[in-house]
Amino acid sequence: MPNKNPESTESQPAAPNPRREFLRSAGLFTGTAALLGGGLELLSRRPSAAAQSVTPGGLIAQAKRPLGPYDTTEPVTPYEQATSYNNYYEFGTDKSDPARLAGSLHTRPWTVKIDGEVRKPQTVDIDTLQSWFPLEDRVYRMRCVEGWSMVMPWMGFPLAALIRRIEPTSKAKYVQFTALHDPKQFPGQQADVLAWPYVEGLRLDEALNPLTLLAVGLNGRILPNQNGAPLRLVVPWKYGFKNIKAIVRITLTEKQPQTTWSLAAPSEYGFYANVNPKVDHPRWSQATERRIGDLARRPTLPFNGYAKEVASLYSGLDLRKYF
Ligand code: MTE
Predict the structure, then answer these.
(1) What is the residue range of 75's domain?
(2) Does the N-terminal or the C-terminal CB of the chain have fewer CB atoms within 10 Å?
(3) Percent of the chain scoring above 90 in pLDDT
């Protein structure tokens, strides 16, 4: 995986932590809904909603919200950096390719197929899917396997809420995620850099953990294409490559599903991919990381700092073997 050193080293102030929800368009703020393109709008339920402002990137709520139990208080990575330094091989292998080329991806209409070991298999439109659940803000650390990290203010809903709704059968043990395969929209898929489509997977208990999110927004805006619009997985205690973008299919399975990076390099990228400073990548140490915007490296925390929430999922598992 490329590991370039991209961005300014200037540290910038934290972005606000607005409280807001994506709601289905209800005739309010119609200009905004049109601007966002997906029949969605971004509203705050607080009286201060009127203080919101519209920008070309979407509607930004200015109201502060109280910190949630899973939020980090660390400074949020500036939006410009989080949206211009990306890994998204469907657009190319360079960190700057996604921001430059992601405009070619059409994220509406978009459907997600839900199948496998579920009692309610179905294909659902993305706007319907996200209208099923109240959207939540989650400020999470993200640690890439390459040794850099960011702090990302996601908006989304817990994957557990979706899984409960589709009613897993007793055979369901894993969840497989499949990204869009469309070389016309994804120039990177015209080459065999990876086996397309990009696929990822979780154990069912990992998928049901309250930290695991399906994200539809970032920084109070509709998720930018380069960050995985319209639907992207966020599993903050695992390396960034588990966070599959542009999801079109969610399949519950009995057997452990294949995952793109372990297919590409099985000795380097395992199925679990838990952030672990004690298990080095065969070609570099995982003991430290560089937060985008910082000069110095900092220690990497076990499970990316979420050990209290997730370490018990792996009790009895040899994390050197199941890396
Ligand atoms: N999802 C798809 N479909 N294709 C990809 O190439 N790259 C992964 C992950 N999700 C990738 C993907 C990797 S390696 C990382 S580190 C994160 O997305 C990067 O997310 P970001 O660009 O929003 O920071």
Answers:
(1) 69-314
(2) N
(3) 78
The amino acid at residue 283 is: R
122 pLDDT above the threshold of 70: yes
Instruction: Spell out which residues line ligand 1, taking CB within 6 angstroms.
Output: 86-90, 144, 179, 198, 227-228, 240-241, 243-246
Decide if 63 is inside a domain. no
180: domain CATH number is 3.90.420.10
Q: Is residue 8 part of a domain?
A: no
Residue type, 320: R
**pLDDT band at residue 306 using 50, 70 and 90 as cut-offs:** very high
Q: CA nearest 133: which of 50, 54, 217?
A: 217
| pLDDT of res. 255 | 98
Residue 102 near residue 225 (C-beta atoms within 8 A): yes
Q: How many domains does one find in the chain?
A: 1
Q: What are phi and psi of 49, to 5 degrees?
A: -55, -30
Q: Is residue 24 part of a domain?
A: no
What CA–CA distances, in Å, run from 65 to 19, 61, 203, 272?
5, 10, 32, 33
Q: Which atom of ligand 1 is nearest to the CA of 142?
A: 24
The rounded distance, in Å, linking the Cα atoms of 202 and 160 is 12
